[in-house]
Amino acid sequence: MKLLEIKDLYTKVNDKEILKGLNLTINKGEVHVIMGPNGAGKSTLANVILNNPEYEIISGDIFFEGEKINNLKTDEIARRGIFMSFQTPEEIPGISVMNFLRTAKNKMTGEVVNYFEFKDEVSNNMKELNFKETYINRNLNVGFSGGEKKKNEILQMLTLKPKLAILDETDSGLDVDAIKTVSKGIKMFANNDNAVLIITHGTKILKGLNVDYVHVLVDGKIVHTSDASLARKIEEEGYESFK
Q1: Could you tell me the pTM of the whole model?
Q2: Burial class (CB within 10 angstroms; exposed 0-12, middle 13-18, buried 19+) of 185
Q3: Where does the pLDDT of residue 24 fall: very low under 50, low under 70, confident under 90, or very high at 90 and above?
Q4: Which of 37, 138, 199, 230 has the most CB within a 10 Å radius?
C-alpha cells in the first residue's frame, strides 16, 4: 500500500530552485535510503514533506495515504503520522524529555496517555538505546552531547510510533557506537505497517538494516534507484558516474 507519493515536485528556497521534478513512492513495510552530494536537495526534500515554511513548492504534489498534504501545516502533517529526525536537534529549556514526549504523544493520538504505563514504555526504550534513564527528567537536549541528542531523536521515534519516519542525516557526526545504537533503534521501529526514509552520506548506519531501495539524488532529481548494493558502490566510487 502506498504510504508516501511525491509527483514531479519542484521547490525553491530564497528564489533558488532546489528540487527539479522529483518523484518518489514509499510503501508500507519499506526502508528507503537517499544519498547524494552536498547541495543535491536531500534535506530540502525532508523539509518540504513536512511543509517547512522556508521551502516553497513551485509545482507538483505530495500525497500521504492518498491525501494531498502540500498545503497542510507542519503540525497537521505530523499528526497524520510523519516524523522527522533533525541533523541538529534543538535545545528546549524548561521542558523535560518526559513532558515533551507525553505532550507529543497526546497530540498525535488525541488521547491522554496513562502516565505510569507511558513512563515504563519510555524507560524500556531508553534501556534498549543505552540512554541513561536520568535524562528523562532533564531539559530537552540541554547539555546533551551530539550522540545523546541523536539517541533522543530515536527515542522520540520509538515512543511516538509514526507511520513514516524521516531520518535526516541522524548519523552525522556520530562515533561508531552511537551509529550502531541509531541503527538498532531503526530496526526496533521498522515493521510492515510503517516505513523509513533515511537520508545519509555514509553506509555505516545501514549495516544490519533490511534496506529495500537506495536512491541517488543529484541536482534536485532522483537519477538512479537500486537495492542496498548501490550504497556500497557509492561509498567506493562516489557520485561522478551519476552526474
Answers
A1: 0.94
A2: buried
A3: very high
A4: 199
